[in-house]
Request: fold
Amino acid sequence: MKLFSQALDSFTHLDSKLFKTLKLLLFYPGKLSKLYTEGIRIPYMKPFQIFVIFNIIFFFIFSNDDLFRIPSTYFFKENFDGIKTLEKVRSISKESGLTFEEIAISYDSASTNLAKGLLVFLIPVIALIGYIFNYRQKMEFGKHLIFASHLFTFILSLFVMSSLLLALMTNDLIKKLLLISIGLGTFVYYSIALKTFYNNSLLFAFIKGISGTFLIFVVFDIYKMLISIFALYSL
Reply:
C-alpha cells in the first residue's frame, strides 16, 4: 500500500511539473528559460527532459515527414541537388542483391533513426545563433543552451499541434498556408522570447526574430540533407 502511494505521488508530481512546464513553454515565450537560469527549477521539468518528450512525439507522428530527413520517394533521383543518389542506390543493389524497394525501406528506417537520435545536436547550433545575436551580454553559453532547448521544443510542439489540422486538410494550398503560419508562429514566439529572456528592445527582438527564424530553418535544411546523405552511404 505504501509503495502504491509513493508511485501515485511520483506520477502526480511529474504530472504537475509537466503541466506547469507546458503552460510556461507554450504561452509565455522566454519566461521558462528565464526562471530556470535564475535558479527557479524545482517546479519545472528540465529543458532536456521536455525536449526528449516532444522529440519522441514528433517522430511518432511525423515518421514519414521530410522536415529533418528526406524520404526515399524524393531522395532517390538521378540528380538530387547535385548528388547522384540513384547511382548510389544502383551500386548498393548490385553489390548486395537487394531490390530498390528493399533499399528504400532500409534507407527510410536508417534516416529516421538518425534524424531522431541526432536531433539534440541542433540545440547547440540554435544556442550559437542566440549567442551571436546577444554576444555583448557576456552570458554563459549554458544559458543559451537552455533557451535554445525550450525554443526548439516549442517548434516541435508547433508541428505536433498542427498535425491534426494537416491530417484533416486535403487542399494543398491550405496545407501550404498552414506551414507558412507555423513559420510565422515560430517568428512571433522567438521574438517575444528574445525580449523576455535577453531583455532585448521590441525592435531588436523583432529584427533578431526574423533573422533567427530564417537561420534556424536553414539549419534544418542542412541537417536533413546531411542526415539523408549519411543514411544512404552507410547502407
